[in-house]
Prior knowledge:
- With about 180 residues, the chain is α+β, with helices and mostly antiparallel strands.
- It is globular and about 50 Å long.
- The chain has helices at about 5-20, 25-30, 35-50, 70-85, 90-100, 105-115, 120-125, 150-155, 165-175; strands at about 20-25, 55-60, 60-65, 130-135, 140-145.
- Helix 1 crosses helix 3, helix 2 crosses helix 3 and helix 5 (about 90-100) packs across helix 7.
- It folds into two domains: about 5-70, Arc Repressor Mutant, subunit A (Orthogonal Bundle), CATH 1.10.10; about 85-175, Winged helix-like DNA-binding domain superfamily/Winged helix DNA-binding domain (Arc Repressor Mutant, subunit A, Orthogonal Bundle).
- It contains nine helices and five strands.
- Strands 1-3-2 form a three-stranded antiparallel beta sheet. A two-stranded antiparallel ribbon has the order 4-5.
- The protein starts with a helix and ends with a helix.
Amino acid sequence: MEKNTDLSASIEALLFVHGESLEIKKIAQILNESESSIKTALENLNEILKDRGLTLIFSGNRVQLATKPEFAPFLENFIKNEFEENLTPAALETLSLVAYLGPISRPRIDYIRGVNSAYTIRNLMMRGLIEKVLDAKAGNSFLYQASFDLLKYLGISRSEDLPEFEKYKSLISETAAN
Length: 178
């Protein structure tokens, strides 16, 4: 397999897992490649995605993997139906992680769950159960925490008031560390 194809696949995987836009410079650092080779691989990936359900969105020096606009009608119906249903086990699991470990990054949630949580997090945010806050340490990345609406719904004033908060927080932290 050609190196540029491997690099395109690596970029696709990275953008998929990250779920938000990334600077081309950051992609180059992560993959230990030059920015020019990343740009070439992005052009290659964009060509590969031409007949697929995904596309690349470029904004200045940032790029993001997204669904194509022509799929919006049935995706909107799918998402609308999701809001009318009860929370799925995946959503409850993610909500628990955010409530007990928040503020927490999406990569850490993904790591603990073992799957990409971008859709589930978006669903929880749209329902107003979690909120995104700027990570003070990393500057341009975000963390997720329980929203005021969730706390109000649960009848508590802070996450630490959740049942057996310390016990579950330490259990989850130990599991994530292993």
